[in-house]
Amino acid sequence: MARSETRPVVTLRSTAGTGQTYVTRKSRRNDPDRLELRKYDAAAGRHVLFREAR
């Protein structure tokens, strides 16, 4: 299946300052702003907010 520009690959970076990242895809139509998700940060040992890095 071809890669689509409507679902780009984005990098989520931890706000805890540990350097932990996640890579995911997002829908530009449903989420035009920067994505923010609470995910597990192994370096911090807890769930923290991850924000989309550009």
UniProtKB/TrEMBL annotation:
The biased composition feature labelled Basic and acidic residues covers 29-38
Q: Does the keyword Ribonucleoprotein apply?
A: yes
Which is one Gene Ontology cellular component term of this protein? cytosolic large ribosomal subunit
Q: Where are the transmembrane segments?
A: none
Q: Name one GO biological process term.
A: translation
Q: Which UniProt keywords apply?
A: Ribonucleoprotein, Ribosomal protein
Q: Does the keyword Ribonucleoprotein apply?
A: yes
**Stretch forming the signal peptide:** none
The family database entries (PROSITE patterns) matched by this protein are listed as: RIBOSOMAL_L33
Looking at the record, which segments are called Disordered? 1-38
Listed Polar residues bias regions: 12-24
Gene Ontology molecular function terms on file: structural constituent of ribosome
Q: Which InterPro entries match?
A: Ribosomal_bL33, Ribosomal_bL33_CS, Ribosomal_bL33_sf, Ribosomal_zn-bd
The record's comment on protein family reads:
Belongs to the bacterial ribosomal protein bL33 family.
The protein's matches in PANTHER family, at most eight in alphabetical order, are given as:
54S RIBOSOMAL PROTEIN L39, MITOCHONDRIAL, LARGE RIBOSOMAL SUBUNIT PROTEIN BL33M
Which protein are we looking at? Large ribosomal subunit protein bL33
Q: Which organism is it from?
A: Streptomyces fulvorobeus
Q: Where is the organism placed in the taxonomic lineage, from the top? A: Bacteria, Bacillati, Actinomycetota, Actinomycetes, Kitasatosporales
